[in-house]
Amino acid sequence: MLDIQKLEKSFGEKRAVQGLSFTVEKGTVLGFLGPNGAGKSTTMRMIAGVLEPDSGDATIDGKSIVSARRDAQAALGYLPEGAPLYDDMTPPEFLAFMAAARSLPRSERKPAIERAIADSRISTVCSQRIGSLSKGYRRRVGLAGAILHDPPVLVLDEPTDGLDPNQKRAVRALIARMAPRKAIVISTHTLTEVPAMCTRAIVVDRGRIVADETPEGLLKLSADGTLENAFTRLTDQAEAESA
Amino acid sequence: MNRFRQQFDSFLPTFRRELGAYFATPMAYVFLAVFLLSIGMFTWEAARFFDTGTADLSPFFVWHPWIYMIFLPALAMRLWADETSAGTDELLLSLPLGMPGLVLGKLCAAWTVAAVGLVLTLPMWITVNYLGNPDNAAIALTYFVSLLMAGSYLSIGAAISALTRSQVTAFVISVVVAFVFTAAGWPLVLSGVKNLFGAGLADLVAQFSFLSHFEAAQRGVLELRAVLFFVGFMTLWTILNGLWASRQRLG
C-alpha cells in the first residue's frame, strides 16, 4: 500500500533523511518513532507530497509521489504536525472545503462529512469556529479532515499529542477500527502508545532506520523491559556511532 | 487537455474559501469602510468634487492609483503569508490541488472584495447623473480599467505575500513595489529621470507606470495598450506568485 524507497532529503548541510526505505501493508499500524530532529516529520512531509525528496520515491496505493503526485495525494490522508487548520471556519465548513478540494463527487460530500464528524467525535463543536477550539478538538478536526475521503493510506503526525486520556482512548479506538482496511503510519513521542496502537514500530535517528520491530520485539532490545530504555539504547547507539 | 483542466479545478474551492475568510473576519468590512471613507475624503476634500463645476467623476478617479497603492496590499498581504505562519500551507500542499488554480483562486477572491468596494462607490456615479449629464459610457470604461488596475496591484501583493510568513513584511514590501510602478508615471519622477538620463529613458519608465496607463482611461479613452498592459502585468506577477508559492516544496 505504502512503499518507500531510498528517500533522501537535505537542508543545506544537514542531511535530514538518509536513504529511508520501508513498506507498510494493509492492516498494519506502523509507529514511527525517534527523537526530535530525527527526520520523522520530514519523511512524512515527503510522503504527503508537501516536500520534494532530493532522491528516492514513495508510492501510495501504487502511485508515485514524484511522478504522479496528485494521484498519490488523492489516495492519502495526512494530518500535519500540530494539526494546522483554518481558524476562521467552523468544522463543517472546513470539511466541506476539504471535500471540494479533494474533488469528491457532490452527492458523496454530505455523507462523507457526516461520517467524518461522527468518527472523530466532533459533533458537539460543529457550530464553533476552529480558532476557539481546544487543542484536543483541533487535533480531532484535523483527523476528520484526513479520513474524510476514506483513503487507503493514512499518515498521521502526532495525532494524540495534546489530548487528554479519554480523547487519546477515543483516537486509539478510531485507529483500531480503521486499521484492517488501511495502511496507517503514526508518529508519536509517547512511547506508551506504541503497544496500545501499533502492530509494528520503526525507530529512526539522524535520518536512518535504527530498528524495525514489533512492539514486543522492541521490548526485547531493552535492558529493563521498558520501551523507554529500548528507545534510549537505540538512539544513543546511533549517536555514539556517528560521533 | 484533461491534465490542463486538472491544474485549474482547484480554483473554485480556493476562491470560495478565501472569499469566506475575508467576510468571516472583520477584514473585508474594515477594508471596505476605510476604502470608501478615504476615497470619499480625497474626492470631496482634496479634489473639490462639487467645486469643479463639471458633472464628471475625474476628481474621483484621479485618486484611484494612490488609494489602491496603499489599501490593496493590505487586502492581499494575508493570502499566502497567513498560510505559512499558521502552518496551513502544509495542509494545502498535501491536497491534490493544481498550483495555477490555487494562485488564481486566491487572487480572484481578493479582487472580488476590491470589486465590491468599487461597486459601493456607484452612488457617486448616480449623483453626477442627478447633477448634470456626464458621459456615462466614458465613466463605465474608466471603472472597467480601474478594476483591471486593482487586479494588477493585488497581483503584486499576492505574489509578495508568498515570499514571507509575516503579513506586515508582505504589506510594506508590496506598498514599496506598488509605489515604484505607480510613481514611475508621476511628472515629478519623470522630469527627474528626464533631466538625469534623457527623454528616451523617461519614456521607457513611463511605459511601466500605472499612472500613464490609467491616464487615458480617465479621459474615457479605451486604449488597447493599457488593457494589454494591465492584463500582461497581472499574468507576470501571477506566474511569479505560483513560482514563489511552489518554492515551499523544495524545503
How does the helix and strand content of chain A classify structurally? alpha/beta
Class from helix and strand fractions of chain B: mainly alpha
Report the biggest beta sheet of chain B as strand number plus sense, adding barrel if it closes: none
> Roughly what percent helix of chain B?
over 70%
Low-confidence stretches of chain B: none
Cα separation of the termini of chain A: 36 Å
Secondary-structure element series of chain A: EEEHEEHEHHHEHEHEEHH
Shape of chain A: globular
Report low-confidence residues of chain A grouped into runs of 5 or more: none
Question: Number of helical runs of chain B?
Answer: 15
Helical content class of chain A: 25-40%
Explain the layout of strands and helices:
The complex is a heterodimer of chains A (243) and B (251).
Chain A: E1 2-11, E2 14-24, E3 29-33, H1 40-47, E4 55-60, E5 63-64, H2 69-74, E6 76-79, H3 91-101, H4 106-119, H5 135-147, E7 153-157, H6 165-178, E8 183-187, H7 193-197, E9 200-205, E10 208-213, H8 215-220, H9 227-242
Parallel strand pairs in A: 3-8, 3-9, 6-7, 7-8
Antiparallel strand pairs in A: 1-2, 1-4, 4-5, 9-10
Chain B: H1 2-8, H2 11-24, H3 27-46, H4 58-61, H5 64-76, H6 78-86, H7 88-93, H8 99-119, H9 122-131, H10 136-161, H11 167-183, H12 187-197, H13 199-207, H14 210-218, H15 224-246
